[in-house]
Amino acid sequence: MATSSSAHRVVGELYAQHHDWVVQLLRRRLGGHELALDLAQDTFVRILSSGTVPIFREPRAYLTTVAGRLCGQYYRRRALERAYEQSLTLLEPELVPSPETRLLVLEALDAVGQVLDGLGSKVREIFLLSQLDGLTYPQIAERMGLSVNVVQKAMLKAYRHCYLGVYGA
What we know:
78% of the residues lie in helices and 0% in strands. It is an all-alpha fold.
């Protein structure tokens, strides 16, 4: 791992050697050059802001992983924005929130989505059935063919994960 000043140097060298390649990788995935430039920049900022910069044996593999995660976040955010905007069309005009409120809601939903993405699919499903659908643990257990004990353990894991996602370790 590198210190702060050496981290800047390592990321600077990584940027100089691989920036154009990352832009092309992202352009193929995203279609747009401007968006690819933005996410390429975010890729290097993410690496630099991670606190430590590992010594790279396969820098392009690492860059592909970081850029791929940013693409996933971008697509998830876009889908979330579309779903939210679509739900707003169902509201009476006087109930539609202001642009500032919309942005705050989207940011909050995105943060929740990122935390939930860190859960395994079964634990996430159990958590959502409990929190969004209001099902009891026995109802979830019956619906998913699990024991109540397994549901309780999954919920404990989900609560712990969400807590750490919000408040840190």
